[in-house]
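R.M. (postdoc): so does anyone remember the format we settled on? I'll just put the structure tokens first.
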């Protein structure tokens, strides 16, 4: 108790040291403005936390993070302005300072004996008896509604739409967030992160489904930035959702090549890949098993074993006689698979019918498994398949074309899609 009293006395003296010199100044505070500042700060803090999460997940690089953080800091300067007017009194008398210097310690002692208790030093007791006073949902919604009214008057306010989209998402109002993103993407150059956030909000508003327009937005994001981790993750999730586990693995495998192998992202994505492979009925080989899987082919033709990071390339075209059976948006899978080995493709490239004829290159970066790659096999079958359902799993009715087995490293291959899968 003695230690507590000494500490309390020191703290009280320190408080008086800062308070007494300013007693001759009178301050007038505008309560309404203060409440506005609290609301603005709350939203800005949420946006900063989301920005930190984006950087941690790799969805935004350091340059983009620094730029966005500066924009948020600027908004703090613009939106949070203290509304305190200070009037300095001249010739004031020191009675108020003297009274406070005497009464403040006396009041503290009296209040402690009436209200205080040593258990009050226990943080858990303090937390239980003094819950944190948060800004109410009604206050936040009022601020958001004010922002919405502003955007009706200023529909070209990029920062306003950005704040509205993020705020609606944080509040779980995803339909409104998607609407805000739809305005925002029209005002700025193509941006992968904005498209991904738009896709996510649209998916949540679409009964938590990424099918349809959300997936189209994800593919647009990948066209802008093929290495955007958030976009790759959602692309895999969209494929997984429609039970196209092979396509999900392809997208998630790309993430594994972009993040540190010991990171939380790598562990989470690796778990998702194993889950997808299991649901697809494909065994998940250990490193030793993968090496043994390619051993027979390598032993059968050791002299012609391909070098590391080998690739195959060429062109794919569709037989004009079959053109009427497909539409421009049907999915085209260009693949390489082992003659004797795993059932899943060693490398896959995804296009659309409207892209045909097209050139292609398949290499180890397109592998579904880190230890089962194109370069691990002496000969592979290269082909192309059109799927109306967009599924990476072959099914009856798909149009396809394959060529004779080739060695990794082969170039100028010509694949013609000219038959229907039975």
């Amino acid at each position: 108790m003695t230690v507590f009293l000494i500490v309390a006395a020191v703290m009280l003296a320190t408080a008086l040291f800062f308070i007494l010199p300013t007693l001759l100044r009178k301050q007038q505070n505008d309560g309404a403005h203060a409440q506005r500042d609290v609301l603005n700060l709350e939203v800005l803090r949420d946006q900063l936390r989301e920005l930190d999460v984006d950087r941690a997940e790799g969805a935004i690089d350091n340059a983009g993070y620094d730029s966005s953080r500066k924009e948020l800091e600027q908004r703090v300067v613009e939106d949070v302005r203290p509304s305190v007017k200070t009037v300095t009194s001249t010739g004031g008398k020191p009675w108020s300072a003297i009274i406070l210097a005497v009464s403040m310690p006396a009041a503290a002692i009296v209040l402690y004996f009436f209200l205080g208790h040593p258990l009050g030093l226990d943080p858990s007791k303090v937390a239980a008896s003094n819950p944190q006073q948060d800004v109410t949902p009604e206050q936040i919604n009022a601020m958001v509604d004010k922002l919405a009214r502003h955007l009706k008057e200023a529909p070209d306010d990029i920062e306003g739409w950005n704040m509205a989209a993020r705020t609606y998402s944080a509040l779980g109002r995803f339909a409104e967030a998607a609407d805000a993103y739809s305005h925002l993407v029209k005002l700025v150059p193509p941006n992968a992160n904005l498209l991904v956030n738009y896709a996510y909000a649209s998916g949540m508003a679409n009964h938590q489904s990424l099918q349809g327009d959300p997936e189209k937005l994800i593919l647009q994001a990948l066209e802008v930035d093929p290495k955007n981790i958030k976009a790759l993750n959602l692309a895999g999730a969209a494929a997984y959702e429609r039970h196209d586990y092979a396509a999900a693995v392809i997208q998630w495998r790309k993430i594994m090549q972009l993040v540190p192998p010991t990171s939380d992202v790598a562990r989470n994505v690796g778990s998702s890949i194993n889950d997808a492979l299991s649901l697809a009925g494909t065994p998940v080989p250990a490193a030793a098993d993968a090496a043994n899987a390619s051993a027979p082919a390598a032993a059968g033709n050791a002299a012609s074993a391909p070098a590391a990071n080998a690739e195959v390339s060429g062109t794919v075209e569709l037989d004009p006689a079959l053109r009427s059976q497909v539409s421009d948006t049907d999915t085209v899978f260009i693949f390489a698979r082992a003659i004797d080995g795993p059932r899943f493709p060693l490398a896959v490239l995804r296009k659309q019918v409207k892209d045909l004829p097209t050139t292609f290159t398949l290499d180890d970066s397109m592998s579904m498994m880190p230890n089962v790659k194109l370069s691990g096999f002496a000969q592979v079958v290269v082909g192309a398949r059109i799927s109306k359902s967009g599924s990476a799993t072959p099914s009856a009715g798909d149009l396809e074309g394959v060529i004779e087995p080739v060695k990794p490293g082969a170039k100028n291959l010509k694949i013609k899609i000219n038959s229907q899968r039975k």
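R.M.: ...and that's the designed sequence above, right after the tokens. Also worth knowing: Strands lie at 25-29, 84-88, 311-318, 331-338, 347-352, 358-363, 380-387, 399-402, 413-417, 419-420. The two ends are 87 Å apart (CA to CA).
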